[in-house]
């Protein structure tokens, strides 16, 4: 009776922990939706706000964050099936374990399929629809037809990725005398038996590879720019206004000098006309800056931000320390792969951790106190989001050497907003591999242990005995003793993607160091940075207090 009561109590405790885990996950979903709504509304243009583009941006960004939220859930479930002594829990039999794994796998199937739909159909369609909307002569039907025509190219690319992932990696029939039809039939049977895992994994890995390039461009720079901008702050609005007034007086003098040449009725030379036009454009920009500076100098928001200046400095120091922690962990992890991995043909897989890094040691420790690892993973993901956004704001959205859009609070056009969410979606996809790079054992096995036989010698009796001792799961662990996360299977289905991610991490470290040097050398930002440039996102109306 006592044993039965203890077993029932243990089962009840296990069920309670699972319920708590799913409740936290539900609250996390609500927090993600709220964050995405605030985030998109904060940056979208108030003059050009569109319902469809706003909903699309919120939905796509939320899907990306929810997909990232599955990572700690996946790790928690595989870890929860085993005790700390390396044995499986009583309820975690083969069928239950398989059901849990399939549930997580189907969750990834669903979310990744939605991501493919957003990236290759819905976001391009909405973008091209609003590009055509700028032409007042086109009707609704024409806009939809043109948007669908351009979107078709993205659909073709998605289909090609799915076909390559589905068929190329699979084995061919062993019978060399098979006909072409038998070979094709074999490929379709293999595709059905794998539930399309290879096809979906290849497509998502391709998007993750693009996300890696975006992370190298924006996140690496943002990790240095965001904290240093918080520490340095912005220039004084009063001082900038004084400088701007002097510039206005100087330009007005140049304009008067040029106009004085035509007082006697003589026409201006072509050179003077061009110079006059340039000075008049410059004067309009300076007067616009004057209105912005006057408004910001007298606004309550500027005074409030000034009172929070010490807090910003503290946050800046904290962010730069976190960035250095990530960089050190990433460097040690990549160095470990370079020295002890199985080579490029395996995707630089490591059989056991030889060089420990801070995060790889910290995450398994936090997992013992539920839900601290959830909190840390969420912080890491949000940190990548904020630093990526800082990088995009500082660099802008470019197509090679052509700047397409700038991102400004309350002034971002619908097309730029869609580009922004597309980039952030791809970067968030890449965060799963970034976290794996920072803590490979944690992402692969969580806190699982398995039993190994250890020989113990007794000196008194000169005898040996065998004792089962727990050991942390790693790549050398038996398959039936350690359960690999579904995230790891998606990340390492194709070795060449893993190899590309490895070299991308070195590029990420290099860009971070370059960005750190550039950010240190740059002076303070203008309190109205961007107003003096030709930017279609800037309004001629009354400026916003959030312009800085």
TrEMBL record:
GO terms for biological process: gastrulation; protein localization to lysosome. The chain crosses the membrane at residues 25-40, 52-73, 106-130, 150-170, 197-221, 313-332, 374-404, 416-436, 494-518. Belongs to the LIMR family. LMBRD1 subfamily. It is found in: Lysosome membrane. InterPro entries: LMBD1_LysCbl_Transport, LMBR1-like_membr_prot. Keywords: Cobalamin, Cobalt, Developmental protein, Gastrulation, Lysosome, Membrane, Transmembrane, Transmembrane helix, Transport. It is a multi-pass membrane protein. It comes from Camelus ferus (Wild bactrian camel). This is Lysosomal cobalamin transport escort protein LMBD1. Pfam families: LMBR1. Interacts with ABCD4; this interaction induces the translocation of ABCD4 from the endoplasmic reticulum to the lysosome. Interacts with ABCD4 and MMACHC; this interaction ensures the transport of cobalamin from the lysosome to the cytoplasm. Interacts with INSR, adapter protein complex 2 and clathrin heavy chain. One of its GO terms (molecular function) is cobalamin binding. One of its GO terms (cellular component) is lysosomal membrane.
